[in-house]
UniProtKB/TrEMBL annotation, chain A:
InterPro entries: ETF_a/b_N, ETF_b, ETF_beta_N, Rossmann-like_a/b/a_fold. Belongs to the ETF beta-subunit/FixA family. It holds the Pfam family ETF. Keywords: Electron transport, Transport. The keyword Electron transport applies. Transmembrane segments: none annotated. One of its GO terms (molecular function) is electron transfer activity. It comes from the Bacteria. This is Electron transfer flavoprotein subunit beta. Residues 23-210 form the Electron transfer flavoprotein alpha/beta-subunit N-terminal domain. Coiled coil: none annotated. GO terms for cellular component: cytosol.
TrEMBL record, chain B:
Keywords: Electron transport, FAD, Flavoprotein, Transport. This is Electron transfer flavoprotein subunit alpha. GO terms for biological process: fatty acid beta-oxidation using acyl-CoA dehydrogenase. It comes from Pontibacter actiniarum. FAD binds at R213, G269, I270, S271, G272, A273, I274, Q275, H276, N290.
């Protein structure tokens, strides 16, 4: 089975978010980057399936050279090879077109990625790729198993419940907890990752359709009003009469 | 030119988040000087559809094909695409739900539209532009995004618009697309609905009572549940709580869980780690109950109680019981 896992390189979850002085771009200064946490669920599940059934796991990142440490990390966790499409992604549509171009050349049995990226929170790329390739997309999925060599069984989240979906390969799915237990690379993995192939290719020509023109941060809260624990019930009165939320 | 809104049903009724989408759509239509049509699929009662008039919708296109009672992305896309064409829609509005985001993304590809999800504002439309604000960096920031294609598709973040209600009734017409077996390749085999604790869905809830590791164990969750019940709230939890299986994963809120933006978020025994805050910090009012006065959550709170959850929460439940509803 050939699995493609798309990973994005995002600010560490503990990062304070800042923008350039003109508010036009994210300020990368002093920010650590990690593999998007949701993508790690997809990556580990792909590796588990490969371990159980054989096959290969290729990781794909659309991004610039500074993403390579995290691509190597994905290889250290157990992916076999990697592709980086050398571009600074401008919007989801652009990224989806790059993934689709790679997928069209390689006939993957499944394409997995995270439910959303924790930076742009778009939840779009997976469904766009499914549409561009004309194959089903099952999003967001929290369970993925093979029924037989040509059929997968997924459980996807819907508001208020879950659905069980069986699809023929190939398909696209996005992952969320608890699809797998993300792994930490071990020393052997880190050593072998250095020798695994990481191909860099140039982007196909593609258009972006959403233009990010300005960034801002939420207004700061006015400060907290403390209530004496002995009279905790007073809180309920305040929530009704002052905050007017009850 | 018109504005088309996709509305989702649940148990025959229209979801609250879809009423928000309908309100949004009507307000955009007013801005653009046009009308609002809704498209609905599957399990929704006609009376509920007609009721969308209250949100300013003049017409509803309804596909009652029972195969669509379950969500099948490709089939939904075909029906909505047909509605876009029929109505000559230039703006397409979804709720930012699991369904809305998926279908919106597919339609953006199929109809060559530009898409913004997680939208929190009405568009700025001066000089023919169409710029919306969307939440980014897991609630730590906002971005203004200009949509440039002829067809603009937006998915509205839950609880970011107040539902309006007026007088009107919408007319309901049927619509059907030429659905083939191929459109149903990913039909769910089984749908299982959760126990929603008084029927309040977490992502749509206006009040959320959430518990963290400070609750010590699942056997103490009655405190969270009882308070939620008194307030008509949904229950939620922090990540370690669901990781330890004290609570199901679909209750986990935060950066890697569900993002919520209720009017009131009550956090009990939760430290307020940055990843937790990321998923809840757009709540309008935040209440924090923690025995540690240094807990970081107090910095993000509007009201706080430094105290032991096991003593404080029963008092809150008593006070909530005494409220005249
Ligand atoms: C990549 C990544 C993603 C993450 N995503 C998420 C996410 O989506 N959501 C999330 O929640 N976390 C997430 N986390 C985890 C996050 O960093 C914290 O570990 C987590 O939020 C802590 O949960 P907690 O506050 O319940 O537990 P703790 O940190 O253990 O805090 C418990 C709190 O309870 C208080 N307490 C104890 N006893 C009592 C009592 N009797 N009465 C009152 N208060 C009491 C303590 O003072 C303490 O503040 C993520 C972490 C990483 C690395």
């Amino acid at each position: 089975m050939k699995i493609l896992v798309c990973i994005s390189n995002v600010p560490d979850t503990t990062s304070k978010i800042n923008f350039t002085a003109d508010s036009k771009a994210f300020d990368k200064n002093g920010v650590q980057f990690v593999i998007n946490p949701w993508d790690e669920y997809a990556l580990t599940r792909a590796i588990e399936l490969k371990e159980a059934k054989g096959g290969t796991v290729t990781v794909l990142n659309v991004g610039e050279a500074d993403a390579e440490p995290n691509i190597r990390k994905a290889l250290a966790i157990g992916a076999d090879d990697a592709i980086r499409v050398n571009a600074n992604p401008t919007d989801a549509f652009f990224v989806a077109q790059q993934i689709t171009a790679v997928a069209k050349e390689n006939n993957y049995d499944m394409i997995l990625m995270g439910k959303e990226s924790i930076d742009y929170n778009g939840s779009q790329v997976h469904s766009m790729v499914g549409e561009m390739l004309g194959i089903p997309s099952v999003v967001p999925a929290f369970k993925l198993d093979m029924v037989d060599d040509s059929t997968a069984r997924l459980e996807r989240e819907i508001e208020g419940g879950k659905e069980v979906v069986e699809v023929k390969l190939p398909f696209v799915a996005s992952a969320q907890q608890p699809m797998s237990e993300p792994r930490i690379p071990n020393m052997r993995g880190i050593m072998t990752a250095r020798t695994k192939p990481l191909a860099v290719r140039e982007p196909v020509s593609a258009e972006a359709k959403a233009e990010y023109v300005n960034y801002s941060k939420p207004e700061k809260k006015g400060g907290v009003k403390m209530i004496d624990p002995e009279n905790a019930g007073e809180l309920i009165t305040l929530l009704r009469n002052e905050a007017k939320v009850l | 030119m018109s504005v088309l809104v996709f509305v989702e049903g649940l148990n025959g009724e229209i979801k609250k988040s879809s009423l928000e989408a309908a309100t949004y759509g009507s307000q955009v239509a007013q801005q653009l000087g046009t009308t609002t049509t809704a498209v609905a699929i599957g399990d929704v009662q006609e009376s509920a559809l007609a009721g969308l008039g209250a949100q300013g919708v003049s017409k509803v296109l309804y596909d009652s094909d029972s195969r669509l009672n379950q969500f099948v992305a490709d089939a939904y896309v075909k029906v909505i695409a047909k509605a876009v064409e029929q109505e000559n829609a230039t703006v397409l509005v979804f709720s930012n739900s699991n369904i809305g985001a998926a279908v919106g993304a597919k339609l953006a590809v199929r109809l060559n539209g530009s898409l913004a999800t997680n939208v929190t504002s009405l568009p700025k439309t001066d000089g023919g532009s169409f710029t919306v604000t969307r939440g980014v960096f897991s609630g730590k920031a906002f971005a203004d995004v200009a949509l440039t294609s002829d067809l603009k598709i937006v998915a509205i973040k839950k609880n970011s618009i107040d539902i309006t209600s007026g007088e009107g009734t919408a007319t309901v017409e049927s619509i059907s697309a030429d659905l083939t077996d191929a459109d149903f390749a990913a039909t769910p085999k089984e749908t299982v609905m959760q126990d929603t604790n008084g029927g309040v869905l977490l992502p749509e809830a206006e009040i959320v009572v959430s518990g963290g590791r400070g609750l010590k164990g699942p056997e103490n969750w009655h405190l969270i549940e009882d308070l939620a019940k008194e307030l008509g709230a949904a229950t939620a939890c922090s990540k370690p709580v669901s990781d330890m299986d004290w609570r199901p994963h679909h209750e986990h809120v935060g950066q890697t869980g569900i993002t919520v933006s209720p009017n009131l978020y009550i956090a009990v025994g939760i430290s307020g780690a940055i990843q937790h805050l990321a998923g809840v910090n757009s709540s309008k009012v935040i209440v924090v109950i923690n025995k540690d006065p240094e807990a970081p959550f107090f910095k993000a709170a509007d009201y706080g109680i430094v105290g032991d959850a096991f003593e404080v929460v029963p008092k809150l439940i008593e006070a909530a019981k005494a409220l005249d509803k």
